[in-house]
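Lecture notes, unit on binding sites. The following record was shown on slide 14. It pairs a sequence with calcium ion.
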Amino acid sequence: MGDAAHVLVLEDEADLAFLLRKNLEQQGHRVTVCGTIRAADDALRAATPDVLLLDVNLPDGSGFDLLRGLRARHVFAPAVFLTARTDEADRLTGFAVGGDDYVCKPFSLAELVARVGAIVRRSRQATQGAYVGPGFRIDFDRFRLVRGDVEHALTYLEAEVLRYLTARPNQPVGRNDLLNEVWGLDRFPTTRTVDTHMLNLRKKLEADPARPRHLLTVHGVGYKFVP
Ligand code: CA
């Protein structure tokens, strides 16, 4: 049961919702079932599930619009659309709004449950290589930082600096510690190099780089990351 997860099922067909709940619970997952966008929105404000299974045609709107809104709110939980719409255009919309998979009805429940398990495993591996903060996400292994709608490329050293600092939240880290641990050299780069990297990182991470909220200077020491 190492892949047990919290799954949100948004499906207005009661029979299908019942079967999804039953089959997912048999695999040890915790399931929240919602029949409307509104109910799903409320549930998502209360807790962020590990996986979203989203119908597209719902009584009060479209699952596509819901996910588009969630991604804009930085909810990055993997999402699978379940729908009778089989047009290529619809499937492409599903991916364009941030969906991870698209399953056409009717589908095999056993296969869907297996897919959910695979998605949970994949996303758990991926989050070990990522840090998600309020309004931003850092992918250390892909060298990407997403803040709002903007994606920034990170250099290898920038990614490693962030990896080091985010692993030590609220802890002052000396410039020399960063040089030793991240640069791994004690001769060529100077503490000035660290400061230059921090300035660049603030431009990517901070809403207002002149008034940083996450990458703070600790006078006489170095820096600290505040989540
Ligand atoms: Ca429906």
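Take-home: The CA atoms of residues 107 and 166 lie 41 Å apart.
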